[in-house]
Here is the input.
Amino acid sequence: MMTIFPRLKGNSRGCLAFEPLFLIPYSMFITYATIYMSKLGLSETQIGWVTTLTLIVQVFSSFISGYLTDRMGRKAALLTFDLLSWSIGTLLWAVSTNVWFFVAAAVINGFQRVPHTAFYCLLVEDTEPRERTYVFTVLQVIGVIGGLFAPLGGLLVYQYGLVTGVRIMYVIAFVLMTLQFLGRHYTTRETEMGLRKKREARELGLRASLHDYLATIRAVLADRGLLLMFGVYILFNFQMTIKGTYLALYLADEIGMADDWISLVPAVSSVVMLLVLWQIVPRITDRLMNRTMLWGFILSAVSNAILALTPPGAISLVVISTVLAAAATMITAPYLEAVVANAIDDERRAKMFAVLSVLVLLVVSPSGIIGGWAYSIAPQIPMWLVTAAFVLSLPLLLAGMRRSRRIEEG
Here is the structure.
């Protein structure tokens, strides 16, 4: 990792060096998670309820994540709740036989927002603001490389059948993810801000921390520029949840793709993203960042509209949609993450990111039920909802760009 990405230093290097151990098995099982539930007897509506339950628990864990990350320290919160939400969660998924197993796994996995906040703080707090776009781009690259391994899941499904193949994927995920959590813990150090916040949280106590939360919420609501970017971020996460939950089902049920071929979709996405990273991303300067994000959102809307209009058996249109969506994601996601990271004050990073996560999840939580209900009416509707999320993001992004320009001009 140090040789391939020499600009990574300290905690960013320690955090990202082990990230493939999470993203490779995740890319394998996430492609089939919804179909796995369906094969075990869950209806589209039940799948939606399980997704929504996970998000409801995430709202709660997001709210407490800032306090726990400050109180326990970034590293301790990260290790403890990663082992709970992912190591135990993947084992539960591996042995699931009915809806109640998925309900239990949904509750446990819902605590993933605590390590999400802790990881975010550990990753960026000791990183210079000018280096954060690079760090998030590297994180995106690792995710892209992880997607290249998704067809291994397809091979397992082809060899053992869908249910047994997915169970094997979850066991592999348990082993690799647990190794990642331990490896990362022993190769990173607590941040300076983390040490200070840990002392302050112990001195202040829970009541004072809650008052600090309220002050943080007021600060967020008073900052119009921050609210605009949060709005874009919320809509981005909304479409990710809808598409992540129902894309595989849509490709199998409506388009007619074979189960073992569906895993090629994230692999194609990964290849396209790597090409974009190699040929296009180096040419995007800081001055062009906002304009690039704008075009990325337009491309995303177009790609999902194509998917919604694709007739059964038209695999060529699925390929076109996948290529456009992958290219758009590569020129939007890392820049959006960096813009949000730089907009948040280091002094209140854990709590402000927790507030952002709560706002995201309050909007995203109903998406499972909405998506399930919409899918039961017509499988194309969830894809249209994804398209609408990108279209709605455009005026928010334009307003944010105008506001930034006015501030720069004085």
The two ends are 41 Å apart (CA to CA). DSSP finds 20 helices and no strands in the chain. The longest helix spans residues 224-255.
